[in-house]
Design brief:
220 residues, three-stranded mixed β-sheet, 10 strands, 33% helix, globular
Length: 220
């Protein structure tokens, strides 16, 4: 426990989440809770890395479950690989709440899973990317680049995205992005994500996110 800290960033007006953190806090002396006032995912991630004391920052979504060895794989990679990657990602394996309908292709955006290979390696961005539910950075890189853009990323009532793409683009332009399959998580895929209504809405917001990331696309 003295090798890492656990930062839980959330809107502390959320009674259910507060109760969950209260339940586990007595057994986690290295846990700190931080309030994001419900301002969205990018705000929450930025609050987290700015408050962190460690040299590296690993992000885990609230619907992802890390497997044993998750942090060890990240730390080993940061210490071994030269140059030190500006971003590392791991496998994100689906934990489907319901059976997958026959008509859902595995590559369709909106189903956040990632499994690039069985071997650690540098990835070729932008043809290859990692997923924000499971990624890590040197804290100094996030400080230098400003972290996650707050005009992108999930907020209440929207499915904005691409904040992770912006940060990965900066990493790719620097020391690069590395993938390690042993830093893997299970990601809950709730039943509503496997419906036409959700997938159409997800694509709609992807278009808005692309335009916010590159305003020239609006004219196109």
């Amino acid at each position: 426990d003295d090798a890492y800290e656990l930062l839980v960033v959330y809107d502390q007006q959320d009674v259910e989440t507060n109760a969950t953190v209260d339940e586990y806090a007595p057994d986690l002396p290295n846990l700190r809770r931080l309030n994001d006032d419900g301002q969205g995912l990018s705000y929450a991630r930025n609050i987290g890395y700015r408050a962190a004391d460690g040299e590296y920052v690993a992000f885990l979504d609230d619907d992802a479950s890390a497997h044993p060895g998750w942090l060890a794989a990240y730390l080993e990679t940061f210490n071994r690989v030269t140059p030190t990657p500006d971003c590392i990602g791991g496998a994100v394996r689906p934990d489907f709440e319901k059976p997958v309908p026959w008509w859902v292709p595995p590559s369709l955006p909106g189903i956040p899973v990632k499994d690039l290979s069985g071997e650690p390696r540098w990835i070729d961005f932008p043809d290859e990317t990692v997923i924000g539910a499971n990624m890590a950075f040197p804290r100094s890189f996030l400080v230098e680049t400003g972290g996650f853009p707050t005009n992108l990323g999930r907020k209440d009532g929207t499915l904005l995205s691409n904040e992770e793409t912006v940060v990965q683009a900066a990493a790719a332009a620097g020391n690069g992005i590395y993938y390690h399959p042993d830093a893997w998580v299970d990601h809950l895929i709730e039943g509503f994500r496997l419906t036409p209504t959700y997938l159409v809405r997800r694509h709609y917001w992807q278009g808005i996110s692309d335009c916010r990331m590159d305003p020239k696309r609006v004219a196109d």
